[in-house]
Design a protein that fits this description.
This protein has 389 residues and is an alpha/beta fold. It is 28% helix and 24% strand. It has helices spanning 17-24, 78-91, 108-120, 132-140, 152-157, 165-174, 208-213, 245-254, 273-283, 324-328, 342-345, 356-369; strands at residues 4-9, 28-33, 42-46, 50-54, 67-70, 75-76, 96-100, 104-105, 161-163, 178-182, 222-228, 231-233, 267-269, 271-272, 287-291, 301-310, 316-317, 330-338, 373-377, 385-387. Bound molecules: guanosine-5'-triphosphate, inosinic acid and magnesium ion. Inosinic acid binds at residues 13-14, 39-41, 125-128, 130, 132-133, 184-185, 189, 198, 200-201, 234-235.
């Protein structure tokens, strides 16, 4: 059956989209990125190739015969593109890369401005300093440079095709092919739906497939929300369920929670149900894919933030804080559950094999978000996955 999958970050990015894009790709004729640039970082781990990373290409790149599309909604650093194609081809010669003619270019000026602006800010966003914001600003200001403005020889020399990828994608879909859209970052970092200004400069949600790839979002058959069994965030801004440093450092160490792009230690939080509900609302997820269930085993008791309470309002709130003053008046309401051991979940491929505590955790997420959890990652590798589809 034809599947048009959108793999979307349901939290603050780094939910493990890389692993799931790689896992879900077989059966598709192509995968496409539609937002952001090399501020993203996705890791894929296999027995043959160990841990591999991509920043611009969708994470199907290590699959045999992979077709990787960089859609019109992206911003591209040409040096990074060159280096990344070279690096991926060393491992997978069969990869084919196609960039859209209308994607925008990140220049050295954009990168310098990104850094300068961050230094000048009194309250830091903590950008990846890859020039993303300034490149999108120039695009919106209608003075950006695009792929079609660059000498085609350059793309030829780095083994990257240039094309109208909107036509390629729509033709593939009309012809009955399955296609995967690989989201970057996460819904809570979306320029419109995240906690502005602590966001990235693109739309990261499923509907952005419409603008960023030229494909009607109604074509999507599977809107897949990727979430971690806990929460992480890189950079500044509201993070309501952030945990104390003792628990955070144990999870950070076990889950290797350092930025793929910048190497910064990630902030760690408990699962945040109001954020996930908000995310499910905006993206209308058909199901969740959850990662890092084995990593969460380092804590004896697991907490879940089930609602927010604002001291500035009466009662309990569901709304995500919109600004710093709302955030500072917020406290999370939590439930606590018994944890599980690493051995009891690591590498499991069948839901029935999971310990009762982990099953209850998954069922609690399903109950509270009203979204089924259909794929469960129980380790870094492709094969360490439970698939309940
Ligand atoms: P996205 O940005 O959403 O693509 O996530 P990411 O790829 O940035 O995450 P990161 O770079 O932190 O890499 C995640 C690493 O954790 C990769 O090596 C994955 O193979 C690995 N990983 C993914 N799922 C699991 C899991 O369930 N358990 C463990 N132990 N590792 C996982
Ligand atoms: P920028 O996208 O580099 O402008 O950074 C803006 C904010 O988004 C910063 O807080 C970054 O840390 C965050 N961010 C951007 N991309 C990612 C990502 O892929 N994972 C996690 N955080 C990200
Ligand atoms: Mg990442």
């Amino acid at each position: 059956m034809q599947k048009i999958m959108a793999v979307i970050g349901a939290q603050w990015g780094d939910e493990g989209k890389g692993k799931f894009v790689d896992y879900l790709y077989p059966g598709c004729s192509m995968a496409a990125r539609f937002n952001g640039g090399n501020n993203a970082g996705h890791s894929v781990e296999t027995i043959e190739n160990g841990r591999q990373r991509v920043h611009l290409l969708p994470a199907n790149a290590y699959r045999d015969g992979a077709v990787c599309i960089l859609g019109n909604g992206m911003v591209i650093d040409l040096d990074v593109l060159k280096e990344e194609i070279q690096r991926v081809m060393e491992v997978n010669r069969s990869v084919e890369v196609i960039v859209d003619r209308r994607a925008h270019i990140i220049t050295n000026e954009h990168k310098a401005k990104d850094q300068e602006d961050e230094e000048k800010r009194s309250i830091k966003i903590g950008t990846t300093s890859r020039g993303i914001g300034p490149a999108y600003a120039d695009k919106m200001y209608r003075k950006g440079m695009r792929v079609c403005d660059i000498d085609p020889q350059f793309f030829w020399s780095i083994r990257c095709a240039v094309a109208d990828t909107t036509m390629i994608l729509n033709n593939a879909i009309s012809g009955g092919d399955s296609v995967l859209f690989a989201g970057a970052h996460g819904t809570m970092l979306d320029i419109d739906h995240g906690a502005y200004p602590y966001v990235t400069s693109s739309n990261c949600i499923a509907a952005a497939v419409g603008t960023g790839a030229g494909v009607d979002p109604r074509r999507i058959t599977d809107a897949i929300g990727v979430m971690k069994a806990y929460s992480t965030r890189v950079g500044g801004g509201p993070f309501p369920s952030e945990m104390d440093e003792e628990a955070a450092s144990a999870i950070r160490k076990k889950g290797k929670e350092y930025g793929t792009t910048t190497g910064r230690p990630r902030r760690i939080g408990w699962l945040d149900i109001p954020a996930l509900r908000r995310s499910a609302l905006i993206n209308q997820f058909d199901y969740f894919a959850i990662s890092m269930l084995d990593v969460l085993s380092v804590v004896r008791e697991v907490r879940i933030c089930i609602s927010y309470k604002y001291s500035s309002q009466s009662g309990i709130g569901e709304d995500f804080p919109m600004n710093d003053s709302e955030y500072s008046s917020l406290t999370g309401e939590y439930i606590t559950m018994k944890g599980w051991s690493e051995e009891s979940v690591l590498g499991k491929t069948n839901f029935c094999e999971l310990p009762e505590e982990a099953k209850l955790y998954i069922r609690t997420i399903e109950f509270m978000t009203k979204v089924p959890v259909k794929i469960i990652s129980t380790g870094p590798r492709r094969d360490q996955t439970i698939d309940r589809r």
